[in-house]
Amino acid sequence: MAKVSVYNMEGKEVGTIELSDAVFGVEVNEHLVHMAVVQQLANKRQGTQKAKTRSEVSGGGRKPWRQKGTGHARQGSTRAPQWTGGGVVFAPVPRDYSFKLNKKEKRAALKSALTDKVQNSSLIVVDELKFDEIKTKNFVKVMDNLKVEKGLVVIEDNDPNVVMSARNVEGVDTTQVNTINVYDIMKAKKLVLTKAAVAKIEEVYA
C-alpha cells in the first residue's frame, strides 16, 4: 500500500494515510485513460454543425451555357462546388458524436488516473476542508498553504461553503466523489482529496 502524508488546512503535516492498492495502486492502462478522455469530450459536443450541399443551395437549375463551342469548360449548374455560392462538397450535417464505454473500462480508467497521480506525487490528502462562511479569500489561503496553483479538489459530499468559496478561484475546480471523472483528474496538476473523500472512493471503487 502506498503511504502519503496528510496535511491540515494550514499546510502542516499531521499524519499519514495508507491508500488501497485496489484503487490507487493498479497498473496504469494508458489506452483506457485515453478512451475515457476522448469519450467525455465527444459526449460534450453539440453536433449541430450544418452546411448545404449542391442539392440544397438555391438556384442553379439551368445549364449556364451550352455543352460545346463556347471555349469554356463544360458546366451543368452555377451551384456546383467550384462556383461562388455553390454547395459544399462534403458538407457537415448534424450528428451525434457520443459513444459508450463499458462500466468495467470506466472504472479501470478512473483507477489508472488516480494511480498516475500517486505515482507522480501529484496527490495531496487533507484531513478536512471546513469553512464557517463563504469566503474566497479563505479558500485561496488554504490552496496557498498546500502550494496548489492549479488543481482539482475532491470532497466527500456537497459542502456549499467549500464549493462557493472556490467558485471564483482561477485554475481550481471542486467536485464530489460521485462526480469525479478521468478528464478532470488528468487535466489537474494537483489532485486534492479530503480523508473522507479517500475513504469513500475506496469504498465505491475497490
| Strand/helix succession | EEHHHEHEHEHEH
CATH architecture heading of the largest domain:
3-Layer(aba) Sandwich
In total, how many domains does the architecture comprise?
2
CATH-assigned fold name of the largest domain: Ribosomal Protein L4, Chain: A
Using only C-alpha atoms, the radius of gyration works out to 27 Å
Report the mean per-residue pLDDT as an integer: 91
How far apart lie the N and C ends? Answer: 13 Å
Overall body shape: elongated
Structural class: alpha/beta
- Ranges where pLDDT stays below 50 over 5 or more residues in a row are none
What is the CATH class of the largest domain?
Alpha Beta
- How many helical elements? 7
Task: Give me the CATH superfamily of the largest domain.
Answer: Ribosomal protein L4/L1
What percentage of residues falls in helices of 4 or more residues? 25-40%
Biggest sheet layout: 6 strands, mixed
Strand order of the largest sheet: 2-1-3-6-4-5
Polypeptide structure, described:
The chain has 206 residues and is an alpha/beta fold. Helix content is 34%, strand content 16%. The chain is built from seven helices and six strands; from the N terminus they run ββαααβαβαβαβα. A six-stranded mixed sheet has the order 2-1-3-6-4-5, with helices on both faces. The longest helix has 17 residues, at 103-119.
